[in-house]
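A common beginner's mistake is to predict each chain separately and then try to dock the pieces by hand. The better habit, illustrated here, is to supply every component at once so that their relative placement is modeled jointly.
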Amino acid sequence: MRVKFTVNGREQQADDVWEGESLLYVLRERMGLPGSKNACEQGECGSCTVRLDGVPVCSCLVAAGQAEGREVVTVEGLADYAEQRAQHGGCATGACGSAGTSVDAAQRRQAKPAAEGQVKLSPVQQAFIDAGAVQCGFCTPGLLVAADELLERNAQPSDADIREALSGNLCRCTGYEKILDAVRLAAARGDARTAGTGA
Amino acid sequence: MSGVTRTPTHLTQGGTADAGIGASTLRPDGTLKVTGEFAYSSDLWHEDMLWGCTLRSTVAHAEIVSIDTSEALAQSGVYAVLTYDDLPTEVKNYGLEIQDTPVLAHGKVRHHGEPVALVAADHPETARRAAAKIKVEYAELPVVTDEASALAEDAPLVHENRKDHHAGHVPHPNIVHRQPIVRGDADAAARRADVIVSGEYVFGMQDQAFLGPESGLAVPAEDGGVDLYVATQWLHSDLRQIAPVLGLPEDKVRMTLSGVGGAFGGREDLSMQIHGCLLALRTGKPVKIVYNRFESFFGHVHRHPAKLWYEHGATKDGKLTHMKCRIVLDGGAYASASPAVVGNASSLSVGPYAVDDVDIEAIALYTNNPPCGAMRGFGAVQACFAYEAQMDKLAQKLGMDPVEFRQLNAMEQGTPLPTGQVVDSPAPVAELLRRVKAMPLPPENQWETTEGADVRALPGGLSNTTHGEDVVRGIGYAVGIKNVGFSEGFDDYSTARVRMEVVGGVPVATVHTAMAEVGQGGVTVHAQIARTELGVDQVTIHPADTRVGSAGSTSASRQTYVTGGAVKNTCEHVREQVLELGRRKFGTYHPAWATAELLLENGKAVTDGGEVLADVADVLEDEAIDLELEWRHRPTEPFDLRTGQGNGHVQYSFAAHRAVVEVDTALGLVKVVELACAQDVGKALNPLSVVGQIQGGTTQGLGVAVMEEIIVDPKTAKVRNPSFTDYLIPTILDTPTIPVDVLELADEHAPYGLRGIGEAPTLSSTPAVLAAIRNATGLELNRTPVRPEHLTGT
Ligand code: FES
Ligand code: FES
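With all components supplied together, the output reads:
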């Protein structure tokens, strides 16, 4: 079958998709977006977390067909997404609370080439680097998507809020302490008006 | 390389002089990792590639009567189905030390999940469905699953015709390796004891559970060889095992490290490497294999489960008199790293304590359980769990404070191990305990808020099982000793190639090693070392591959010591050559070129007094200095097979933990409230990474204390919980705050005085948590992980 949906602000289409293929598989293997990771295919680890119409989901548990016509944001689109949110005053869709965004609005979010030698990063991405929250980094994309969503909802989360929001994302390397630091740092730096630059 | 997309690329990082050693320099791969661009082995892609899949045995021990692949081959989209009969050479086994592991099962399977056949197809689902169509007929054999069944007189032999070098000195063919250690006279010393305690301890089977599954891409090459991109811990060890099975010379198997999503010992043995190459060579097409989580649990060795019997004695003023122990490690069906695990478990079985009279035996068994091998802290972890429980028992019996009791018996620099080897670098055991005890305690009843109980802070957490009625707090301590690097006479060297040249008017360095970056931060540290030694800002880390000499394994806490040492050493030689060139070019202009100690700093050649003699750019001009050198730490020697005596280890690493737990005694649920750690790291080359490693190791120890265990059915030897639904690793809700106190007492024998750090925190966190739970509940608790039924007596 053919599946069409918006990924990081761009219309994408995949052909010959099998009935059983997950959104994760289509993103990684058919659309060339391997940023979302596959570590369990069971909805247990959160490595594959993406946003589907704004809602964080385990993309390994979403059938590709379920994404038809909807909007997906992956770690690859996080920096743009955060920038859009900053421009719209706190909500990337420009309509906080509503489900999804128009294709039009989404297309305005297309990736712009990063300045020479500088990669555009969302505040939470920058905070993960600065706090040392990245070791092997396999859990990082899923954690970033989940953490970014948390901060969108709750700009000043308590530690318990952070733990609750990230409890679906396993990390085997860090012991989580520096991940907490990173989310606290991103929150402390304000609600993400400015994008950082690569380390 | 052609056609493979998203292969690892050079990691370049600019820095300043203060981004050298000792600075919390950020990872050069951090940006790639947070943007999703970093290429893990499961992300590789090649036009026209096929997907490989492994068929694994559904039984633990059986003769293979027949394998019928015809239906699988007939599936459209299937390019190859391989069994043992398709292996190209006479070499059909591999192994780290003993070549006892079949590439594909022949004749027999020896454990549940052993690879039996391979499929390559154009879609991963096609490959899986085809594999399911392969018909294997098994004639099941009785299983050996524990010491009693393995060592019974009529026990089935896991390996019928053993010829390995341990076979001659083990008392039973189902024992992989045995290491006794006898020192002093434990029986005589026991007579001096005022109190004697003994105990039997059980350590469950832990899994590395790295998040990035086993995966890689094998690309057939025009010269008949193969290019393999893979996540591993040691490229050259893989190569040594892969090439003979393929019937290829080593230079026709070119290996490049692709992004590794954690390792913790689980990637020391081969997984898909040979399988991928076989399929690629057979089909003539690139083949990618990615295990799913279920297969990952079968695709790597686990931590040895263990039974440990201990006896200690002490005088009434609290001095240890003697120690006797017997440690039985279950190695499962194949040897893997079992011999080395036995060496560690026995030689470190006393822990960081001074005891002169000991009687020790450690063995590893062959059974039909899943193979066990390397995992963070191996051998030492199991022993630490037991000896620390013993220390608490002794302290309690003597009415002493458990920390003071430990401090009274703590080893120091100069104390001999049971092997007779004297610990000749700082051993601040008492001090680490003092520090961890001195940290402020977390406040009581943290769950209480003005709006009532915040259930998230209680045992059971979000499941809202209690409001604190039956919750009691406990505090426990533990300390451990781990050897750093490969021991027992192993030639534990590393190789580094360093190139220095001028690019765009500034000197830059390129560091090329075969070190596997598995997340530990070696790439960061290598750049820091090059900056410090060569005075450059810009350092490029070349991708790790087999075009440079071996770096040894990213394990045993050795990589910063050994490959870091190799990078330092090569940089020093490069620096010497740069300075020599400077002397030749400019020596006549300034006498200091001949008389002073010279350094490279901020792109300049300077005297140790800070006087600038020349720009490195002017010294080098168009020349590049390019050296590849091997580096070794001081040698070790094997342990005597009868007495266990010998200078077997290079270096030691020490960590202490204090655990604070809250236990709901009605429900049997544990909340670890805080796990404080104090560790001596010798010299923190990158403090940020050091703390991250300590916290990560601590959390893995917490996992095994309260939740992690691979459950193997004792009757069938089948694995019952190969999934993240049933094998639980700590989440952010299970993991407490982990304050870390880092001590830096230089080891004069090591580069920069550093100590390997990765493993020690995994040792002591488990017994600290157990001690805290015992302290809270008054229960004996001699097994890990602790489950609710152990706490509620149900
Ligand atoms: S891969 Fe989707 S939750 Fe683990
Ligand atoms: S950094 Fe490795 S799993 Fe989180």
